[in-house]
Design a protein that fits this description.
The protein is of the alpha/beta class and 563 residues long. Helices cover 26% and strands 24% of the residues. It has helices spanning 11-22, 43-58, 77-90, 105-117, 128-135, 152-164, 213-223, 239-248, 272-280, 295-301, 305-315, 326-340, 553-562; strands at 30-33, 62-67, 98-100, 121-124, 173-176, 191-195, 209-211, 228-232, 256-260, 263-265, 322-324, 343-344, 346-347, 350-355, 363-369, 379-385, 387-391, 411-414, 419-427, 434-442, 459-460, 462-464, 469-476, 502-510, 522-525, 529-533, 542-549. The longest helix is centred in the first third of the chain and has 16 residues, at 43-58. Bound molecules: adenosine-5'-triphosphate and magnesium ion (MG). Adenosine-5'-triphosphate is lined by residues 34-36, 44-45, 47-48, 231-232, 262-263, 270-273.
Length: 563
C-alpha cells in the first residue's frame, strides 16, 4: 500500500522486515487498533487504523479491534457502536477478532497478584495528590511512599480487600515497585489499579477496581499475541514501563512497541476531549456534523472511504510531529470524486432569466454528458424552456474587465443548450432590486456551438424554472478560522471557531434528474463543487451538503513550495 514504486518503505515497515528476517515473533505480524470508547473516531484515528490494518494485510498477518475500556466513567456503548461502524466503513475487517480489555479484567487481576507476590507491586495508601507530590519532577527525584515496603502478605490481603469493596474510592491504589529516582517519571512507582465505583458498560458493577492504561495495554497486547504494538509518540516515554511489566511477568509474548507521529490537521482539532466540547456546548449539531473531523462527520459530509484511505497513505509515517494542511484531504476527495461523481447542474442563488424569443409553452430536452472523465457513464436529458434560472453571480450590470459572464448586451453559452444574449435587466421599481433578466437565444447554437464559428467567453450552468427541484444546500467552511499552535494548551481553540463555517441556502434549484437521489449519494454540481445528499432530506425537500468546492488550494500550495 505505502510501498508504491519509487517510494521508500517507512520506518515501521523497515522494522517489521527486520523482525521477520531475524525470525522474531515466529515470523508473524499481528497488530491491533486499540480505541478507548470515550468518543467518536476522528481522521487521526483513521491514520492509525489504516496503518494497523494495512500493515497486517500487507504482511499476510492479522489485526485485532480492541476496545481499551478501562475507564468506565468516560466510556459508553454509543461510542463502542460508532467505532465499530466507522472502522468497517473505512473498509477494514477484524473478522472474529473483536476484543475488549474488560474481557481480561480477571486475568489482569491475576497478573497483578503475581507481581505483588514477586514483591514488585504494593498497596499504597497515599491520596492522588500525595502521590503526585511524592513523584518529584523532571529535575528532582521522587520520594518513596511510606507504604512501599509493606510485606507481601499484607499487600495480598489489602489488594483482595480493595477488590472486595472494603475501601473508599481513591483511598488506596496498587502501585508497581520500580524506581522513585528514575529519570523517567513513568517509572516512579506508577499506579496499576485504582478504586472506582462506576458502572462499566460491559462488566456492570462487578468490579470496583480498574487497571490503569499502562498496565492493561501491554498485558492485553501480550494476551492477544500482538507482535508490533503501534502507537503515537506520546507513548514513547511509556515504553520502558510497557517492557518492564512484560519482563517482570515473564510474558511468553512480548510485543514490540513502536511509536509514530500522530496526525495533526490544520483548521480543526483532533482530540476527543475538544471534540466533545464542541458537541456538548452546541457549536456543532453532533458528532456527525459535516464540519467535524470525525469519521461520522466526514461520512455525512460526503467523503468517501477511498479518499480517506488515500489521504492516510499520502501523509506517510514519521517520527516527528507535524501538521498536515486540510487542503490535502480536500484534494484527495476531489480527485476520487472527479473520476466517479455524475455531473448535474444546480443553481444555488437563482436569478430568473426569460428567453423572450423562445415559445411561451416551448419545451425541449438537451443532451448532457454525465461525466467527461468517464464516457461510460453516458448522457442524460436536461429540460429547457422559456424561463430559466442562472447563478446570481454570473450576471454583472457593470462588468469589471476580467468578468466575461453575462452583462447587458453580452452573449454567453448556456451549457449543453444555446447562446443567449442579455437584452435588459428588470428591477423592482421601489427597491431597485434585480428581479429578472430578459434575454434572446440563437436557435442555431443548439448544443452549444455557433455554425458561424462565433465564440463566447463564458459558459454558464442553468436550470429550467418550471422543471427544476427546489433544494436546500449547506455550504461548509473550516471549523477553525486560524490554525492553533500544535497542542498549545493555553490557546483556547474555542477562540478560533470560524463563525462562517456553515451557510444554509434554502431556495436553490437543481436539475429534475436529482429527484429521489438517495441519502449519501454524491455528485458534482458543475462549476461549483462536489455535493452529497444529506440524511435530513425528505420526499418534499432534498438537502445537499457541499463536500468540497472545485477550487484546488492544494495545487496552489504545492506550486508555491516548488518555487
Ligand atoms: P484523542 O487524543 O483524540 O483523545 P486518543 O489517543 O485518546 O485520542 P485512543 O482511543 O486512545 O484516542 O486512540 C486509539 C489509537 O489511535 C491509539 O493507538 C492512538 O495512538 C491512535 N491515535 C489517536 N489519535 C491519533 C492521531 N491524531 N493520529 C494518529 N493516531 C492517533
Ligand atoms: Mg488515548
Amino acid at each position: 500500500m505505502s510501498t508504491g514504486p519509487g517510494r521508500p518503505k517507512d520506518f515501521i515497515r523497515v522494522i517489521i522486515d527486520e523482525d521477520l528476517a531475524s525470525g522474531k515473533h515466529g515470523r508473524r505480524v499481528h497488530t491491533r487498533f486499540p480505541p478507548e470508547p470515550n468518543g467518536y473516531l476522528h481522521i487521526g484515528h483513521a491514520k492509525s487504523i489504516c496503518l494497523n490494518f494495512g500493515v497486517a494485510a500487507e504482511y499476510g498477518g492479522l489485526c485485532n479491534l480492541r476496545f481499551d475500556d478501562t475507564n468506565p466513567s468516560k466510556e459508553e456503548v454509543e461510542y463502542v457502536e460508532s467505532i465499530r461502524g466507522d472502522v468497517r466503513w473505512l473498509g477494514f475487517d477484524w473478522d472474529d477478532r473483536l476484543y475488549y480489555a474488560s474481557d481480561y479484567f480477571e486475568r489482569l487481576y491475576g497478573y497483578a497478584v503475581q507481581l505483588v507476590r514477586a514483591g514488585k507491586a504494593y498497596v499504597c495508601d497515599l491520596s492522588a495528590d500525595q502521590i503526585r507530590e511524592y513523584r518529584g519532577t523532571l529535575t528532582e527525584p521522587g520520594r518513596e511512599s511510606p507504604f512501599r515496603n509493606r510485606p507481601v502478605e499484607e499487600n495480598l490481603d489489602l489488594f483482595a480487600r480493595m477488590r472486595g469493596g472494603e475501601f473508599d474510592d481513591g483511598s488506596r491504589t496498587l502501585r508497581a515497585k520500580i524506581d522513585m529516582a528514575s529519570g523517567n517519571l513513568n517509572m516512579r512507582d506508577p499506579v496499576m489499579y485504582r478504586i472506582l465505583r462506576a458502572v462499566h458498560h460491559r462488566t456492570g458493577d462487578s468490579w470496583c477496581i480498574y487497571p490503569m492504561y499502562d498496565f492493561a495495554h501491554c498485558v492485553s497486547d501480550s494476551i492477544e499475541g500482538i507482535t508490533h504494538s503501534l502507537c503515537t509518540l506520546e507513548f514513547e516515554d511509556h515504553r520502558p514501563l510497557y517492557d518492564w511489566f512484560l519482563d517482570e511477568l515473564k510474558a511468553e509474548c512480548h510485543p514490540r512497541q513502536i511509536e509514530f507521529a500522530r496526525l495533526n490537521l490544520s483548521n480543526t482539532v483532533l482530540s476527543k476531549r475538544k471534540l466533545i466540547r464542541l458537541v456538548r456546548e452546541g457549536h456543532v449539531s453532533g458528532w456527525d456534523d459535516p464540519r467535524m473531523p470525525t469519521l461520522a462527520g466526514l461520512r455525512r459530509r460526503g467523503y468517501t472511504p477511498e479518499s480517506i484511505r488515500n489521504f492516510c497513505e499520502r501523509i506517510g509515517l514519521a517520527k516527528r510531529d507535524s501538521t498536515v494542511d486540510m487542503a490535502l484531504l480536500e484534494y484527495c476527495v476531489r480527485e476520487d470524486l472527479n473520476k466517479r461523481a455524475p455531473r448535474f447542474m444546480a443553481v444555488l442563488r437563482p436569478l430568473k432569466v426569460v428567453i423572450v424569443n423562445y415559445p411561451e409553452d416551448g419545451f425541449e430536452e438537451l443532451e448532457a454528458v454525465n461525466n467527461p472523465e468517464d464516457p461510460g457513464m453516458g448522457t442524460r436529458k436536461v429540460p429547457f424552456s422559456r424561463v430559466l434560472y442562472i447563478e446570481r453571480d454570473d450576471y454583472r450590470e457593470d462588468p469589471p474587465k476580467q468578468f466575461h459572464r453575462l452583462s447587458p448586451g453580452r452573449e454567453v453559452r448556456l451549457r449543453y443548450a444555446y447562446y443567449i444574449t442579455c437584452l435588459e435587466a428588470v428591477k423592482d421599481d421601489k427597491t431597485g432590486e434585480l428581479i429578472e433578466l430578459r434575454c434572446t437565444y440563437d436557435p442555431e447554437t443548439r448544443g452549444g456551438d455557433a455554425p458561424d464559428g462565433r465564440k463566447v467567453k463564458a459558459t454558464l450552468h442553468w436550470v429550467s424554472a418550471g422543471h427544476a427541484l427546489e433544494a436546500e444546500v449547506r455550504l461548509y467552511e473550516h471549523l477553525l478560522a486560524t490554525v492553533p499552535g500544535e497542542e498549545t494548551e493555553d490557546l483556547d481553540f474555542m477562540d478560533c471557531l470560524n463563525p462562517h463555517s456553515l451557510e444554509v441556502l434554502t431556495s436553490c434549484r437543481v436539475e429534475p434528474g436529482l429527484a429521489g437521489a438517495a441519502a449519501g449519494s454524491r455528485c458534482q454540481f458543475e462549476r461549483q463543487g462536489y455535493f452529497t445528499v444529506d440524511p435530513d432530506s425528505s420526499a418534499e425537500r432534498i438537502v445537499f451538503n457541499r463536500i468540497v468546492s472545485l477550487k484546488d488550494t492544494w495545487a496552489r500550495i504545492e506550486k508555491a513550495k516548488r518555487r
